[in-house]
Amino acid sequence: MKKYIVLFWCFILGNFVFAQQNDALFSKGIEAFAKKEYKEATSVFSELVKTDSLNATLHYNLGTSYLKMQNTGLSIYHLEKALKLNPNYEQAKVNLSFAEKLKIGSTKGNLPIPQQQMLYSVFDFLSPNMWAYVALGTMFLGVGFLVFYLFLNNSSLKKMLFGLGILMLVLSVCGYFISTNQSKYLTTNHYVIFVHKETSLMTEPRSISKILSKVPEGSKGFIKDETNQWIKIQLQNDTIGWVEKNNVKQY
Known about the structure:
single chain, alpha+beta, 7 strands
């Protein structure tokens, strides 16, 4: 028993120390940005993103740092990522509009919207973790109501508790489904951002195939298919072709 207690406290202490280190690193990044040391800021925020890739604030700060360095592709990528994680992030929207102006060429048109995104936007007033807590909490309430139902003699009260128990269990299932969908949407890549000055879009997933077009840095594409090395994408002008994975950032 002592062994498990020690392991538990080691786990708690480890997480506390990790959080403290991250807070110190975050402050270092903010300080570097304030001093206009943008290269240092991008280095710090990049390290933080590796440990917390679903943190919209970190992606916003990293994208803004790249924006100050006029790194169009990576700036747009991280600001788009911040908006995927938090669609109501107004500062990210403003900075993304500035980053878009740095693009060499602009492509008109709209990309497909994933079905998961439509459902996500309906329930994004709570995070996936919060929906998981809702599922867990309503499950315990539902089980509790049904247990009390079994031991009561009052028929009207029994009916009410039974109804509440079933309702809580239904809400628990819904909460679990929403949490799972939200998490899957956030961790699944649907789009790409081109991060090099100019990238070849190919007709086939081979380096010797015909070049369809040259895509400028910061352009966005919708993922349609992929292999180990290549991604099939649809551009905003509806052009469809293949690009090597190391030429784009997926989100």
